[in-house]
Amino acid sequence: MSKRFTAGAVATATVLALTVTGLGVPAGAAPTSARTFTVVAEDGVAADAAVAAIRAAGGTVVSRTDDVGMFQVTSDRTDFASRATAAPALIGAAEQKAIGRKPKLDRVEQEHLLAAAAGKGSGGRRAARMDPLDDKLWGLDMIRADRARKVEPGDRRVTVGVLDTGLDASHPDIAPNFNWKLSRNFAPDIVEVDGECEVPSCVDPVGTDDGGHGTHVAGTIGAAANGFGLSGVAPKVSLVELKGGQDSGYFFLEPVVKSLLHAGRAGLDVVNMSFYVDPWLYNCTANPADSPEHQAEQRAIIKAMKRALTFAHNRGVTLVGSLGNNHEDLANPRTDTSSPDYGDTPPYPREIDNNSCWDLPVEGPHVIGVSSVGPSGKKSDFSNYGTEEIGVAAPGGWFRDGFGTDSYRTYGNLILSTYPKKVLQEEGAVDEDGNVVPGAETSVLKECKRNGECGYYTYLQGTSMASPHASGVAALIVSKHGKPQRRGGFGLHPDLVEQHLYRTAAEHACPEPRLQQYRDEGRDESYDAYCAGGLNFNGFYGYGIVDAYAAVTTPLRPYARP
Q: Which of 52, 71, 89, 340 is most open to solvent, judged by the fewest CB atoms within 10 Å of its CB?
């Protein structure tokens, strides 16, 4: 699939043909067609004061998000971004450029499709069987989700937001748990990267997913235990679509922020975030390699994301994020050579200062960072790690796990989950009649009911697949230990959820030797990873591998501040 889910940016998902009237073009500012920007106000600046500053800089406010001081602005001035950055009331302006490079195939998530040995089957792995395909879900077995559901399968009142590319609500394993009332699309298609719009408005209907990633994530969290297909970690919770990602796999600032604000206002219990905000792998406050405009853009991203994450947390949302697939210690990042990954500036090398740069959202406030492990429990070679940001580990798959055994480089090492039929057809794995094409049978599965209704499933790997396992356990914690809330509804404070998730995780010591190398698996020294910390907490596993059964059978303790 021509998608990518390893990083993020600040052009928003909306590309509008808007005109600006009454501004004029002063000397030195050559007339151009109106361009669209995302502008963020400084701390403590009232919304009206920010609007006045935007107007003074030559812009027109199209929409405003006062809760985080974010504004969508159009201007026909070529120097608008620099004028906005110079305004004391504003942090900076990020242009929403309708210029993009061809979306990249995620080589981490789909390594098995690119490998010469990818014709192998499941490797003989068997997990506890609940729904027909659950014997292929070793992740559910590892975190004891099969035992947990006998105690607590999830409460319908508990809502889990999947901030992603959308959700295929027509899938037989997603439909029973899909919450139509609370689901929203905040990311209209961008033709330059997403291709031709499916509908005239370019706003895909709620309940669709033209990327596939969101549906895969949702299935791991909460696919229904209905005797069909497969089941998720929390098979009776409600799934909420928060479409903040493009079909192509880009995640831009404005749709992500609006998704988080909706999650807070709607009272969602958990939000899963398996992405980073494009176009910067790391957003830095003043990286000397960046131009002044790019520096201001990144400061705006940092500020808006921190405000949005804090807003959601303060409204009761437990935030769970993937640590990323760049196989690096987030406290000691390597030179970034992939940013910006969108717009008219090609990527260039950037030395990353850990004290002034952030990988967002996972390094933002209140986010539970999740690393990936394979079936052996070993840290996946691609997974980011480090004591600074990790919270827990979870099954994310690892194609190269099991070196020296029959399971090495087999699909059974990956995470099987729900997937849209339409996307599989576009990728050539399923034909017009809905049949899996020859050669794809080991990577794509099809299950049908007696009435002819069918569901499709595929294998992926990545921290994107680990995070939803943790989100599912968080949802079970709310289901088991939640209470009626003062403002109405049912829930549990996110600090309590986080603490209980950590306390009930299965502790896992660092490997010996602590410097984990992956030479047998064909990886060079750039994948070498040092595991710091002890049994209770370390850089590979955090507080441990999430444990659904312990989470629903261990009494909740009053919140103890760290």
A: 52
